[in-house]
Design goal:
The chain has 182 residues and is α/β, with parallel strands linked by helices. It contains seven helices and four strands; from the N terminus they run βαβαβααβααα. It has a four-stranded parallel β-sheet with strand order 3-2-1-4, sandwiched between helices.
């Protein structure tokens, strides 16, 4: 099976890529960047992924441009539903690429994170897969959470502290800052 995997960052790719390869699946990555804020964070994640992909001989498609304004327009006044919108954008873009590249399926490293909403990712992935006519591959990669963390630290990878969007950045840093300075 040939799979296109949306990759949010290198540390989250470690376990899923290894697991899929050990199951005999040929994996190619796709780095979606429009949701990652600020741009310096986006480039740092991309550079880390490039170094890791080279290390493990993983081909990756890197999205061009930086459409953060479009991302923010989609989120305006829908902040409470931002994860659904963001998941949809990333999975839909991945599925369209998978179809044009004649992949057998698509998936996402978001399924590795214990902080993501797996039920919602699966629901959106299935729906998008049907609409684009490429099957969504669901596997709960959270079982390898500790393995991925350990390996990423051993490799001295950059490990971000928030999902990527401006809202998650605020939630992570403003909340911890307000607790420590209060």
């Amino acid at each position: 099976m040939k799979m296109l995997m949306h990759i949010c960052c290198a540390p989250c790719a470690i376990y899923p890529v290894d697991r899929l390869r050990s199951d005999g699946i040929t994996v190619m990555g796709f780095f979606y960047r429009h949701n990652i804020h600020p741009f310096t964070e986006c480039t740092r994640r991309e550079e880390t992924l490039k170094a890791y992909a080279e290390r493990i001989t993983l081909k990756v498609i890197y999205q061009e441009g930086y459409e953060v304004e479009e991302f923010l327009r989609k989120m305006a006044f829908r902040e409470a539903d931002r994860c659904r919108i963001c998941y949809h954008d990333r999975l839909y873009t991945t599925a369209k690429l998978a179809r044009s590249g004649k992949f057998d399926s698509f998936s996402t490293t978001l399924l590795y994170s214990k902080f993501q909403r797996h039920d919602l990712i699966a629901e959106i992935g299935e729906s998008v897969g049907k609409s684009v006519d490429v099957p969504f591959f669901y596997q709960d990669f959270r079982t390898g959470w500790k393995t991925g963390v350990t390996v990423s630290k051993e490799l001295e990878m950059y490990r971000q502290q928030y999902c990527g969007c401006i809202y998650s950045e605020k939630q992570r840093y403003f909340t911890s800052h307000s607790r420590s300075s209060g």
